Amino acid sequence: MTFRGAGDAPLALPVIENPGEGPEEIAVLHQEIRELARRRNAVVLAHNYQRPEVQDTADFVGDSLGLSRQAARTEAEVIIFAGVHFMAETAAILSPEKRVLLPDLRAGCSLAATITAEDVRRWKAEFPGYIAVGYVNTTAEVKAELDYCCTSGNVLEVIDAIPEDSGILFLPDFFLGAHVRRMRPHRRVEVWMGECHVHKGIRSETLNEARERYPDAEVLVHPECGCAGQLIYEMGRGDIDPEGLHILSTEGMVRAVTERPVSRFIVATETGIMHRMQQMAPEKQFIAADPEAVCAFMKTITLTGVRDSLALDRHHITVPPDIARRARLAIERMVALGR
Ligand code: 13P
Ligand code: SF4
């Protein structure tokens, strides 16, 4: 499978490989990584969808928003980004004096690949005066065209910070945009038709089967999911009880598993997050709404890759200063908003 990448270059979906590291090799790699990170004054940041053993070696695991904040405030000289390309770019934009390394350049994002800076310029020209709000899953060039950046964790806060009478161009995720429209029906919001191939595939039918099988479970849904729109619609019509159904960012989901007083959760997002959930609440049970929901881009990062990235100083992610300056304004507006 390929997606349209930056500048229309195709973005190939990597094949998920099993790195075949046994427990002993994992322990050795963890030690090597910690030693190299200490010597290089490096911090390892990992997204919630990373492989379990990569999460376990990180200094900080979190969602896009948390990782952006961490990258902005760290005192380390080197940031190893165990995540995807747009996340490493965001770190490079926020910390231009730091050396940001992405262990594998195949770590793209099908959602970020749905829109280019030229697309945004054309769209803005069609809707003069509209405020452009873009999800963090975008390239640096796209962010440079935005007024505000947002993540799934703070999208409604960002929308609420924009004057009521302003129209909004929301990009690139269609399902997250539909979520915004439903939650803020009085706002004028135009939505880009982009989607993440992983979340789009998590459908209402699959989720409903799991809900029937585990009626006592609470349901955690990422707003990028194909099923999210249907759920909100059904809740709005009063067809389903909103109690026990939560539409949240990845970090919001991790928090919910410790805060909600139930012992079982159905999880509708990329399955890598369940490792972190299991660590946070070992006594609870987590059921993937769709066990096939695996992001091959995220899984390109392996422990060996993280170790080599530190040892060989690769792959250095940089953003041209003019693009970075303009993109930073949009990201800083987001980072400045409280949760
Ligand atoms: P979060 O912002 O919730 O971490 O999600 C990022 C992402 O890539 C979702 O697919
Ligand atoms: Fe991009 Fe989807 Fe992977 Fe998230 S899960 S990084 S949105 S392709």
Q: Report the β-strand fraction as a percent range.
A: 15-25%
User: Which spans have pLDDT < 50 for at least 5 consecutive residues?
Assistant: none
Strand order of the largest sheet: 4-3-5-6
CATH architecture of the largest domain: 3-Layer(aba) Sandwich
Shape call: globular
**Rg over CA atoms:** 19 Å
Report the CATH superfamily of the largest domain.
Answer: NadA-like
- Count of folded domains: 3
Number of helices, counting only DSSP H or I runs of 4 residues or more? 15
Structure classification: alpha/beta
Helix content: 40-55%
Largest sheet: 4 strands, parallel
**Could you say which small molecules are bound to this protein?**
1,3-dihydroxyacetonephosphate, iron/sulfur cluster
Task: Give a written overview of the molecule.
42% of the residues lie in helices and 16% in strands. The protein is α/β, with parallel strands linked by helices. It folds into three domains: 2-107 and 297-320, Rossmann fold; 112-195, Rossmann fold (3-Layer(aba) Sandwich), CATH 3.40.50; 202-288, NadA-like (Rossmann fold, 3-Layer(aba) Sandwich). It has a four-stranded parallel sheet with strand order 4-3-5-6, with helices on both faces. The mean pLDDT is 92. Iron/sulfur cluster is lined by residues 84, 109-111, 137, 196, 198-199, 270, 295, 297-298.
Task: Describe the secondary structure blueprint for this structure.
Layout: E1 2-4, E2 10-12, H1 23-40, E3 42-47, H2 52-57, E4 60-62, H3 64-73, E5 78-82, H4 85-94, E6 99-101, H5 117-126, E7 131-135, H6 140-143, E8 148-150, H7 155-160, E9 168-171, H8 174-183, E10 189-191, H9 197-200, H10 204-213, E11 218-221, H11 228-237, E12 245-247, H12 250-259, E13 264-268, H13 273-280, E14 285-288, H14 303-312, H15 321-336
Bound molecules: 1,3-dihydroxyacetonephosphate and iron/sulfur cluster (SF4).
1,3-dihydroxyacetonephosphate binds at residues 48, 63-64, 137, 151-153, 196, 224, 249-250.
